[in-house]
């Protein structure tokens, strides 16, 4: 598919493949819109029981396309819609992660049920480094998954988490050798398809806890994110990325 998202349906499993390897699978607004449409169609289609998300190439996903973020708050709107779509999606989600998972490449995984990763997977949430704040309820779900102190290293320092640590910390279902990753994830998705669908869906709902709390946090994050994206800190971080230089942040940007 020319928009960077490839979708296929096999025996009731919708596979959404992020397919923009030359840009490390960074997600543009068009790609979010394609994923949102695929999730919406899957949600309303009784023949589809499971969704599997994967990425082509050496990186799972380098997060939001920073050029879209540079365009201002409207550049993030399709991403917010994706966050809401994946957080409220009512069928099992499986993910296969290799290489880098940055920003939403990591935060979407909090909403997936079975997450398989290759040993080279690295999870990075560099929101603060970009002058931004966490999204996809990760400000709630990262501390809940890792505890506050480990989440702080990820969210405040932006430190990467390596695959074995992510597995041990509970972000991942299992580590799988890279060459078997997709086949393994597909086999587990097929195993879910064979389960009684009502019991599966009801169990998943029970496991996910209070959807209102997640939704409220997503909205709260989005409000702060929209302000941050237009801030001098964020503009400097985005410019520095594309100019391939270290960013320079001013301690008191309102001083003059
Ligand atoms: N938005 C837009 N373009 C991106 C991108 C992103 N999030 N991530 C990578 N790219 C582009 C690079 O600009 C580069 O394009 P070019 O070949 O035209 O110069 C290409 O993808 C390859 O990336 P490169 O930086 O050369 O690869 P790398 O292996 O050295 O580093 C990353 C990979 C992912 C660590 C690095 O690209 C990066 O830090 N990207 C930004 C991640 C990010 O902050 N995402 C937003 C989170 S909210």
Automatic annotation (TrEMBL):
Gene3D superfamilies: 2-enoyl-CoA Hydratase, Chain A, domain 1 (3.90.226.10). InterPro entries: ClpP/crotonase-like_dom_sf, ECH/Chromodomain_protein, Enoyl-CoA_hydra/iso. Keywords: Isomerase, Peroxisome. CDD domains: crotonase-like. The keyword Repeat does not apply. Its main location: other. It is found in: Peroxisome. GO terms for molecular function: delta(3)-delta(2)-enoyl-CoA isomerase activity. This is Enoyl-CoA hydratase.
């Amino acid at each position: 598919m020319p928009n960077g998202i490839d979708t296929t349906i096999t025996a009731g499993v919708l596979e959404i493949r992020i397919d923009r390897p030359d840009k490390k699978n960074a997600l543009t607004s068009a790609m979010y819109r394609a994923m949102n449409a695929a999730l919406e169609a899957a949600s309303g289609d009784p023949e589809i029981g499971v969704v599997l998300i994967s990425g082509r190439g050496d990186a799972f996903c380098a997060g939001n396309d920073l050029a879209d973020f540079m365009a201002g708050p409207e550049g993030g709107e399709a991403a917010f819609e994706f966050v809401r779509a994946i957080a409220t999606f009512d069928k099992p989600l499986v993910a296969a992660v290799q290489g880098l998972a940055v920003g939403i490449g990591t935060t979407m995984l909090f909403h997936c049920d079975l997450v398989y990763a290759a040993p080279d997977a690295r999870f990075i949430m560099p929101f603060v480094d970009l002058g931004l704040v966490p999204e996809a309820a990760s400000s709630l779900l990262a501390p809940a998954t890792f505890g506050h102190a480990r989440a702080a290293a990820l969210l405040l320092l932006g430190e990467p988490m390596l695959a074995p640590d992510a597995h041990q910390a509970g972000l991942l279902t299992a580590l799988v050798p890279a060459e078997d990753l997709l086949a393994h994830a597909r086999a587990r998705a097929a195993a879910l398809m064979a389960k009684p669908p009502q019991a599966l869906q009801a169990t998943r709902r029970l496991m996910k806890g209070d959807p209102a709390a997640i939704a409220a946090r997503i909205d709260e994050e989005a409000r702060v994110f929209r302000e941050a994206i237009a801030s001098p800190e964020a503009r400097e971080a985005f410019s520095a990325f594309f100019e391939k230089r270290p960013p320079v942040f001013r301690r008191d940007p309102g001083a003059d």
